[in-house]
Amino acid sequence: MTSKSTKKWVLGTLLTLITLSIVSCFGVTSQIKQHLGEKTELVNPSIFKTSSSPIGIKNVSVLSADCSKMLDSLTVLIKDDEIIHVAKGINIPNEYKVINGTGQYLIPGLVDTHAHLHRSKNDLLLFLANGVTHISEMFGQEKHLEWRKEAEDGALSPKIYVATRKVGSQKGLMRKIRSWFGSQFNYTTPNKARKAVRKYKEQGYDAIKLSTFLNAEIYYALTGEAKKQNIPTIGHLTSEVGLKGLYTSGQSQLTHIEEITKNTMVDFGGLGYDNTEEYLAYLKKNANDIAIKLKEIDMVISSTVWIIESIPKQNFDIENFLKTIELEYQNPGEIEGSKLAKGWLPGNNSYENMDIKNDPNQIKNHKLFWETYVKAIHIMTKALVKHNVTIVTGTDSNTTGVVAGFSLHDELESLSKIGLSNAQILHAATLAPVEWMHSNAGKIEVGHRADLVLLAKNPLENIKNTRTINAVITNGKLLDRSVLDKVLQSIKDANNKSRKININEFIN
To answer: What are the residue ranges spanned by the domains of the chain?
Structure first.
């Protein structure tokens, strides 16, 4: 081959490789957009007629600030997204829109402290339709910072708290490539980790999200620098740090009660199929001491109980499980998955265990493991409540099987089944999380944000009554039942137009 021919061959090869790389990049990006819901038709919020007039709700039962009782026959005046008067026998000015609250119950807006919006902006409306007026995005990107600003400027949206993507310390070229396409950030030296904390604060994130895959050196670099910068570190608890390290680390929030039990399993020596009773006995013996230590450091813990309870159902009975959730409202891109990621449906579900479906002994062992795993979450939750550790409601929304908005009510019911009182649950779903977010809401008192939900039935009598929503008030806007119904129908219609796989067999 001549020198000239060689040059042509090399140049042609390089051009081919570059072309293939560009095509591959576009292909990967397209698949990411698909499974994160970006290709689903967007609902235009301007089609919903919401009232921004001052509002007077008369003769309504109002949840007390401590969430323990309903205060009867009050009038609540709201102007410019602020509660300006709460008392009996108030005259409502003529310019106010009057709502007769007789026989109805007014509570603060609900909060989901563990949400994943991904690229599904329709979910903002789905949260509001379920009375969720504050959310915490736990895998934040620049897009979510923009959505937060839009909400602050009056868009039809919950108030949004935005944590960074997960921050880890994994090495390797593939980890770096994945980070380019929206996976977790990885830092391999303490200096780089500290610099990253400063960068994220400057970009406007509300918190640093810690990954499970994080070595102790980088973990302490992150938590130490975050403390200096006065930005919270929240998220997972790496086993290399463990509970003992957590107590002095400065991390201020755990994103799952599961983070505690997973680390007790490590301390125990591992949970298998043959030591479940021994592990549960170990946990019962240590749960109170763990809870006391967490209370001493004012740790806040997002619950995410319901998703753990759902995993064995998705593992072994996915078809029937799907019929119990509001699947038609879930973004079809996430349900269907992509070439890069699994979805929610049978045969392609992230939790479904296809490898053991025809092995009765394996099924028995796996069921025993997951029953023990769920029991552990329940044991730990009871200990946390007993010692007044701050629990805030979170769902891990848009994780497989967890429908945004609706899942918050599932979470409340799971906490009720564990044994929390309805007052404790309402506190965990309203005041406690907004205090953690430093938002002036969570109480129906003068001077607080008017993020409110009007219910047909009393949630202190049955926590399921949080689903009986007659109206939602947020950002100074009133969404009555007719508007909320239109929101839900519009999301369902947008999903159906964007759907590639028929899901009718899973809709009750």
So the answer is: 55-157+282-491
